Each structure stands twice: as C-alpha cells, then as structure tokens.
C-alpha cells in the first residue's frame, strides 16, 4: 500500500478544504470499503481525512419535519434504533440486511451510500475498464451474472447499497457540504448513472461531503417493507431488492414510494408504480399486472436474465405485504 497523509479535522470546512486542495484525497468514514479498495490497489490515495471527529456528521435528530441521520451514524445504530424500527421499518430492514454485525458496527450510512461498485472487473486491477478510464466494459460479453438489467448505458454496474434503495422509496433528502455551504437535495438527484458520468455513482465532487440524510415525516408511520434477494443467505449483496412505502386512509392510498435495488447503476425509483397506487383504493389495485408491466425496459445481457423474474416477484411480494 502506498504511504499517505492522515488528518482528523473537527470541522466540515477544514475537511472539505483539505480534500479539495490536495489531489487524490479521500474521506474516511468506517473504512470498510475505502480500505478494501486501497488493499486491492483500485485506489492509491495520498491523503485520508477521517470524519470521525466532525460533530455535524454524527447523531440522529427527530423533529416535526422528520428524522435527520448524520452520515457517520453506523448501520448498526440504524438497525437497532427503536424509533426507526417502529416508524420506518423498511430502513431498519435494509440496514439489518447489510453484511455482518462486525461490519455494521463500523460501517456508516454515508459510507454505505457512497461505496464503490462491486463489479469484478472494477475491483480487479488487471482490468482497466471504462469506469477506471479504460476503453471498454468487460462485463458486456464477459461475466455479467450480477450486472444491471436497467439503466446501464456503457457501464452495467448495480448500485450496491441497500440503504440507498430504502431511502429512495422513503423520498429522503441528503444534505451536502459544497463550496463552504450546505445544500439539501432529493436523494434521487444524488445518484448519477453512467449516461451522466461513467466514472462515478453520485454527484459528489472533490471537497464535497455528505453531511446527513433527512427522512420526511410524510414517509413515516405508514407501512413499509424492504425485501432483498441474496445468492448466499449468510451475508451478501442484493441480486435484486425492493423497497415499498405506502400510507392509506380507509383503504385509499394517499402516499407511496417504491424503488428497486441490485438491478441498475443507481437505486431504481419506480415512480410509475407510485402513480398506479396513489389515489386508488386498495381493492382496485392489480398487484400482479403492475409488477409484470413495470420492467418492460429491462435489457438482459448474457447471464443476468434471472434478475428480471426475481425483481418482478419481489415487487409483487412487497406490494402484497403492505397492501393486504
Ligand atoms: C463483506 C462485506 C459485505 C457487504 N455487504 C453489503 C450488503 O449486503 N449491502 C450493502 O449495502 N453493503 C454491503 N457492504 C458494503 C458496506 O456496507 C460498505 O463497505 C459500508 O457501508 C461503507 O461504509 P464505511 O463507513 O465503512 O465507508 P468507507 O469505507 O469509509 O467509505 C466508502 C466510500 O464512501 C466515501 N464516503 C464515506 N462517507 C462519506 C461522506 N459522509 N461524504 C462523502 N463521501 C463519503 C469514502 O470516501 C469512500 O469512497 C459489504 C461490505 C463488506 C466488506
Ligand atoms: S460494468 Fe462498469 S465497472 Fe464493470 S466492467 Fe463494465 S464499465 Fe467496468
């Protein structure tokens, strides 16, 4: 591993300036992905900025507008929080589905949202693929069993984050520190697909820091669920997943949020499904028809066709769980 400089600032300003002014700097949260990438030789930072002492990125705050979760809050804190478990069940289920207890104890929400893809070719230094500045995507025509069936123009990674899928369905916002200012944006606008920039998965530029995630009150206290299909049951990334949030009044659906994971380079917001739920009575909803129609744009590569059936089935199951 290459030698690097290490800083542990206490303020966002200092962390951001250091990251912006020194090339090849990376923010270090729990390190469960970043340090793996360093060991794999995928990245060779000359500077690591630890976020562990930056107070603005820590803690959870409940108030009238919802819940704010600092980006340095660990996945275990989210999975075991009683308020999240009872009011935002899908987020608790997504968090508990991630990795192992040991990893969840140090891995943070911010790191989970900003982790890099697991595509074998990306993680292997011998393949200089498109995402790393090379000329081709090795997954196309190569080993594509775990790659995307939706949204993959030029690069076919699937976004690896379970929490991201749940948060898209919860219509969360993220707060970012950029150019010495705090900016809040919908989480949908945080992630970027390969058609925007093949080299990255989100809008963060050098010096930008994800401060926190806000879950609006409107997305709480309804019914929500996160279902995840894994190849290896002990611990694994999603080969397909679905997050559903629904609110109802006397059988009329008043609010809905739906997203799919493990199938596209970004958490896949199924807003067309939301349109088929909001304003309708539960008994008028044809869950099977909705689930089979919504992935009509899927593009199968060589070995990943099973994902289409899987994500349709999981969407149907998740909708049945919250609507029946
Ligand atoms: C064995 C194993 C199994 C796993 N299984 C799953 C799984 O099933 N589901 C799943 O979702 N994930 C899984 N993961 C990924 C794991 O959840 C991530 O490694 C972890 O969440 C990253 O968090 P971290 O705090 O360790 O981030 P780090 O490793 O410190 O950082 C990851 C990246 O995010 C950037 N970053 C971190 N925080 C911020 C911030 N606040 N602002 C800007 N950039 C930031 C870093 O610079 C770095 O590029 C698994 C990982 C392992 C090792
Ligand atoms: S899917 Fe993306 S990361 Fe994987 S080989 Fe293709 S370009 Fe590289």
CATH topology: Uridine Diphospho-n-acetylenolpyruvylglucosamine Reductase, domain 3
* Average pLDDT taken over every residue: 97
Our count of domains comes out at: 1
Order of helices and strands: EHEHEEEHHHHHHHEEEEEEEHHH
Largest sheet: number of strands, sense, barrel closure: 5 strands, antiparallel
Low-confidence runs of at least 5 consecutive residues: none
Side-by-side strand order of the widest sheet: 4-5-8-6-7
Distance between the termini: 54 Å
Strand content: 15-25%
What CATH architecture do you see? 2-Layer Sandwich
User: Would you report the number of β strands?
Assistant: 12
Bound molecules: flavin-adenine dinucleotide, iron/sulfur cluster
Fraction of helical residues: 25-40%
Question: What structural category do the secondary elements indicate?
Answer: alpha+beta
Inertia-based shape: globular
Number of helices: 12
What is the gist of this entry?
With 324 residues, the chain is α+β, with helices and mostly antiparallel strands. The protein is built from twelve helices and twelve strands. The protein has a single domain, classed as Uridine Diphospho-n-acetylenolpyruvylglucosamine Reductase, domain 3.
Topology:
Blueprint: E1 5-7, H1 12-21, E2 25-28, H2 34-40, E3 47-50, E4 60-63, E5 66-70, H3 75-80, H4 82-87, H5 89-96, H6 101-106, H7 109-114, H8 120-123, H9 162-169, E6 173-178, E7 181-186, E8 209-216, E9 223-229, E10 240-249, E11 252-261, E12 268-269, H10 271-275, H11 287-293, H12 306-323
Helix pairs in contact: 5-9, 11-12
The structure holds flavin-adenine dinucleotide (FAD) and iron/sulfur cluster.
Iron/sulfur cluster binds next to α8.
């Amino acid at each position: 591993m290459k030698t690097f400089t290490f800083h542990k600032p206490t303020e966002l300003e200092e962390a951001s300036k250091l990251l912006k002014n020194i090339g090849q700097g990376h923010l270090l949260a729990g390190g469960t992905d970043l340090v793996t990438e360093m060991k794999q030789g995928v990245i060779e930072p000359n500077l690591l900025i630890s976020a562990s002492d930056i107070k603005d990125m820590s803690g959870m705050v409940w108030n009238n507008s919802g819940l704010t979760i600092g980006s340095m809050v660990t996945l275990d804190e989210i999975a075991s929080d009683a308020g999240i478990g009872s009011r935002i069940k899908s987020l608790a289920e997504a968090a508990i589905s991630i990795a192992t207890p040991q990893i969840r104890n140090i891995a943070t929400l911010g790191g989970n949202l900003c982790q890099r893809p697991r595509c074998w070719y990306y993680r292997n230094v011998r393949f200089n693929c498109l995402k790393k500045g090379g000329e081709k995507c090795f997954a196309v025509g190569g080993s594509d069993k775990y790659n995307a069936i939706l949204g993959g123009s030029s690069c076919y990674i699937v976004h690896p984050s379970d929490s991201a899928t749940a948060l898209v369905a919860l219509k969360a916002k993220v707060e970012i520190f950029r150019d010495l200012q705090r900016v809040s944006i919908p989480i949908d606008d945080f992630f970027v697909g390969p058609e925007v920039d093949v080299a990255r998965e989100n809008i963060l530029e050098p010096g930008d820091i994800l401060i926190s995630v806000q879950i609006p009150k409107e997305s709480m206290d309804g019914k929500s669920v996160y279902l995840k299909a894994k190849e290896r049951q002990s611990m694994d990334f999603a080969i397909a997943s679905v997050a559903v949030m629904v609110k109802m009044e006397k059988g009329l659906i008043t609010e809905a949020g739906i997203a799919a994971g493990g199938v596209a380079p970004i958490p896949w917001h199924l807003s067309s499904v939301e349109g088929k739920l909001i304003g309708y009575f539960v008994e008028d909803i044809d869950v099977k028809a909705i689930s089979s129609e919504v992935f009509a744009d899927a593009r199968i590569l060589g070995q990943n066709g099973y994902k289409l059936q899987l994500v349709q089935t999981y969407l149907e199951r998740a909708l049945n769980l919250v609507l029946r």
